[in-house]
Amino acid sequence: MNITTCKAIYQCCLAVFLVLPTMHPATAQGYPDRPIRVIVPYGPGGMTDIAARSIAPFLGQALKQSVFVENRPGGSTIIGTEAVVKARPDGYTLLVISGTALTANPVLFKKMPYDAAKELIPINFIGAVPLVLAVHPSLPVNSATEFIALAKSKTNSLNYSSAGNGSGNHLFAELFMHSAGIDAQHIPYKSGSEMLFALVGGQVSFAISALVVASPVIKSGGIKVLAVTSQRRNANLPGVPTLDESGLRGFNVTEWVGIFAPAGTPPDVIERISTATGMALQNAELVAKFKALGVEVNSGDGKELARVVNSDIARWAQLAQEVKFESQ
Q1: 294-305: pLDDT as tens digits
Q2: Is the same domain home to 160 and 90?
């Protein structure tokens, strides 16, 4: 091979190398051609994990590709979320996360390794998850009204569990206590299932738990449910009153779960994932499964999800000011 030929090959390779970084990492044409990873920034067994694992096979059917769930717990969901933010924006790494963790972390932490509002693309809602106020059966109360009265008589002597600092369980419990005018000690755990085990085992007095996680132990009598946190009673617990009915007028909160992609993911790939998610959420089998778990399907699009994210960030910022949360 002569020098002229070597130079020509070198120049050709250099041209390709310079062009590659400007090319989109993926387009909807041919996407997906390999398995898709969904990162859940919590341990297994919690509300978001259950929702992600429920929808994954149906999303896979719609995309005609395998979709697998990977748990990345820790750091108040920051570890798993950062993994998605830093992933190649090609549609093969997605995030399924609860709204509270995503929107409260910017308020709770002074320094964040990412800006979720700028570095994540909202794709779809998955669903709204009802929450319940639950206590250990040994606690001598049978209603939310009685519980609030007991807590006021035993100032700061009760404790509650959560799935970690900044988790939905933590923030909703703080919102409940702020509304009721009571105090309790916070005991954080690593996941929703661990949080619930602590309540069943009597290590804590109460918790605000997702119904989807709490249902099995509610049925077995392992915990006692005093109220639901939504404005309306839940069809799965028709005899359980709302906190609004129990004296906390206007109290109305539910958790939501959404799906996101790293910023920079091509719009046509985002549209492909969004369409497939919508198809999955219309599957009668998945709808029935979610209904049995108490999850209310919400297939709102990315624009609606973005609006809710911004609204929730403002809500938690206001709560942080009122209850004097200390940033970490």
Answers
A1: 888 877 789 999
A2: no
318 and 182 in a single domain? The answer is no
State both tokens at 41: 């920034």
The CA distance from 213 to 163, in Å, is 12
Distances (CA, A) of 125 to 24, 51, 148, 177, 195: 26, 11, 33, 28, 25
* Structural domain total, the chain: 2
Q: In whole angstroms, give the CA distance from residue 102 to residue 289.
A: 25
Q: 164 is in which domain, residue-wise?
A: 131-228
Query: How confident is the model over 173-226, as pLDDT tens digits?
Result: 999 999 999 999 999 988 888 999 999 999 999 999 989 889 889 999 999 999
CATH value at residue 158: 3.40.190.10
Please choose, from the candidates 308, 296, 261, 265, the residue with its C-alpha nearest in 3D space to the C-alpha of residue 37. 261
Torsions phi, psi for 271 (to 5 deg): -65, -40
